[in-house]
Design a protein that fits this description.
Butyryl-CoA Dehydrogenase, subunit A, domain 2, globular, alpha+beta, two-stranded antiparallel sheet, 3 domains, Butyryl-Coa Dehydrogenase, subunit A, domain 1
């Protein structure tokens, strides 16, 4: 599994831009100069027609910089849900980056498509009215395009809800990781435009979840790698008892263990990205492995970063706490590692589904 020279050029371009703009202002040049918002969008809808490997490269770099841009929520989750639903009308604006999309489906902490309980009923006049509450909606308050999963008599279906629709309330949450904005979406009879076939929403959400997990795993690898780089550099500079702390055997062992975790996570993330790029039928298994392994590796390496930096690692003066928060927030996003191990076991037929 090797990335191409073109992939490395994409990486260099994204890294260089983020070095100059490591905040929210990076989104516009990322979309206008590099075209990241449309990487996974087919050319017929104004995108680049690329795939999971290009997404992997960009997510690794966004993870290294902890860039607070809406790439995961808009360019991955929303875009993939629309593609899986066969809906192309909204894609050009998302691909251009002139609009940001948000996909609302998690309820009560569950990202399982079968757990959707928000309801959609059709009125006598033919309009669809949605009722329910959605949690952990990435960029939900600032999004221009809102896609909501709701249950009809035929099953789960996706709906587009206007962001200013009567009966819709968007509440900004205060997540652990402030660099990844989240919202609660409250629907009280808000009108929605149906997307795709009735009852086909669960399939679209599963596809979006798998590709979202693959992308998130890449971000976690990039962030974990950066944690290790910063910690190794600090261990070579911080002097105790007349010598750099990195020269002590106990510290060397901990850094070596962190390195092994990062490289093992990299293998899992790359394997999932290649499976997605090749359209492998086993993608759900690869995605579950990557999300579980990379979430735990990032959390462990971010924890070591805190420990080996000592007191400064828990202050606002250092970025260690930001990586630690991203690790724990990302670990729960799209499902906790334990849930993905359960999902893997279900895929392999090793246990009965627990319906979560």
């Amino acid at each position: 599994m090797r990335l191409t020279e073109e992939h490395e050029e994409l990486r260099a371009a994204v890294r260089s831009l983020l070095a100059r703009r490591p905040d929210e202002s990076a989104w516009r040049p990322l979309t206008e100069q590099i075209g990241v918002a449309g990487l996974a969008v087919p050319e017929e809808y104004g995108g680049a027609g690329c795939g999971a490997l290009e997404i992997h490269v960009v997510m690794e770099e966004l993870g290294r910089a902890l860039a607070p841009v809406p790439f995961l929520g808009s360019a991955v989750l929303t875009t993939q849900a629309l593609l899986a639903s066969g809906e192309g009308e909204l894609l050009p604006a998302l691909a251009e980056g002139s609009a940001v999309g948000a996909l609302a489906w998690a309820e009560n902490g569950s990202w399982d498509p079968d757990a959707v309980r928000a309801g959609a009923r059709r009125t006598a006049g033919g309009a669809w009215r949605l009722t329910g509450v959605k949690d952990h909606v990435l960029d939900g308050v600032d999004a221009d395009v809102l896609i909501v999963a709701a249950r009809t008599d035929a099953g789960v279906r996706l709906f587009q809800v206007a962001v200013d629709a009567p009966g819709l309330r968007r509440e900004r949450l205060v997540p652990m990781d402030s660099s990844r904005p989240q919202a609660r979406i409250v629907l009280d009879g808000a009108e929605g435009r149906p997307l795709g076939a009735d009852g086909d929403g669960a399939r679209a959400l599963r596809r979006a979840r798998d590709l979202g997990c693959v992308a998130l795993a890449a971000e976690q690898v990039g962030a974990a790698e950066r944690c290790l780089e910063l910690t190794v550099a600090f261990a070579g500079e911080r002097v105790q008892f007349g010598r750099p702390i990195g020269s002590f055997q106990a510290v060397k062992h901990r850094l070596a263990d962190a390195y092994v975790r990062v490289e093992a996570a990299r293998s899992a993330a790359l394997g999932a990205a290649f499976a997605a790029a090749e359209g492998a039928a086993e993608l759900p298994r690869y995605a579950a492995v990557a999300k579980s392994a990379c979430s735990e590796a990032f959390s462990a390496v971010a924890g070591e970063m805190i420990q080996l930096h000592g007191g400064i690692g828990i202050t606002w003066e250092h970025d260690a706490h930001r990586y630690f928060k991203r690790a724990h927030g990302g670990g729960q996003l799209l499902g906790a590692p334990a849930r993905h191990r359960e999902r893997l076991a279900e895929e392999l037929g090793l246990t009965a589904s627990r319906g979560r």
